[in-house]
Design goal:
With 238 residues, the protein is α/β, with parallel strands linked by helices. The chain has a single domain, classed as Rossmann fold (3-Layer(aba) Sandwich), CATH 3.40.50. Helices cover 29% and strands 25% of the residues. It is built from eight helices and eleven strands. The strands form two sheets. Strands 3, 4, 5, 6, 7, 8, 9, 10 and 11 form a nine-stranded mixed beta sheet that branches. Helix 1 runs parallel beside helix 2 and helix 6 packs parallel to helix 7. The longest helix has 13 residues. The protein is globular, with a radius of gyration of 17 Å. The chain starts with a strand and ends with a helix.
Length: 238
């Protein structure tokens, strides 16, 4: 029986896998995603379903699909949806992102999100745990393949939002534009104002016009080392 806990007081119940813990990356991504016009979304590589769950809690008219290759993670994601009574507007598909054309019709969604592996194959040591290795390294899906899938799945004007590492930003933006996913918003995440950024949040639009807006950085701590007010807002700790 999964161990469900509240994500915040009165919030969704969530159980996480031991080898795939809920990360700050996923929480920040879910907060970054614009939902005003989103009706049908897909989380590419949804793991245990955290991002989908957070988005469903934000917008009650949203319908979400999670696509996950690893069967145990997909089963846990389904359990999370069931525990929160969300099976009527959310579902989990077990499958490979690279097989997206076999799984879904083109233009099926107006929102795609992803917290993909950050490291290209050969850039570091792989974990002996297959699930952890897949979550950290592009052994099962490259950045180019991810963008290709998002472009196929999104209707014109749909948004693709993801979180990644700043050192791969150039590669990421090139992969997006190559698939007609025009980068529209970018936000760097760092611990303090004078520390190098540790994450980057990017939104692209399928078939969008050129024009990238750089948003103010998201700082995780105050000068005294305490959590920033924005991070407390995102985690609902105010």
């Amino acid at each position: 029986m999964p161990d469900f806990t509240e994500l915040w007081p009165g919030g969704p119940l969530f159980a996480q896998a031991e080898n795939q813990r809920l990360s700050t990356d996923s929480v920040l991504l879910a907060d970054f995603v614009p939902l005003r016009h989103a009706r049908r979304g897909i989380d590419l590589g949804c793991a245990s379903g955290a991002v989908a769950l957070l988005l469903l809690a934000r917008e009650r008219t949203l319908d979400m699909t999670g696509l996950e290759l690893e069967e145990n993670a997909a089963a846990l994601a389904r359990a999370n949806l069931e525990r929160n009574g969300l099976t009527e507007r959310a579902r989990i598909v077990t499958g490979d992102i690279r097989a997206h054309r076999e799984l879904f019709r083109a233009g099926s969604f107006d929102l795609a999100v992803a917290n993909p592996p950050y490291f290209s194959v050969g850039s570091g040591a792989l974990s002996p745990d297959p699930a952890r290795a897949s979550a950290r390294s592009e052994t099962d899906c490259s950045l180019e393949e991810l963008c290709r899938a998002a472009a196929w799945l999104l209707q014109t004007g749909g948004s693709f939002c993801l979180v990644h590492r700043p050192e791969r930003l150039s590669e990421l933006l090139c992969a997006m534009t190559a698939q007609a996913l025009e980068p529209k918003r970018l936000r760097l995440v760092g611990k303090t104002f004078d520390s190098p950024p540790s994450l980057v949040l990017v939104e692209g639009r399928r078939g969008g016009r050129p024009g990238l807006r750089i948003e103010p950085p998201l700082l995780l701590t105050e000068p005294d080392g305490s959590e920033s007010a924005e991070l407390r807002r995102i985690y609902r700790r105010l």
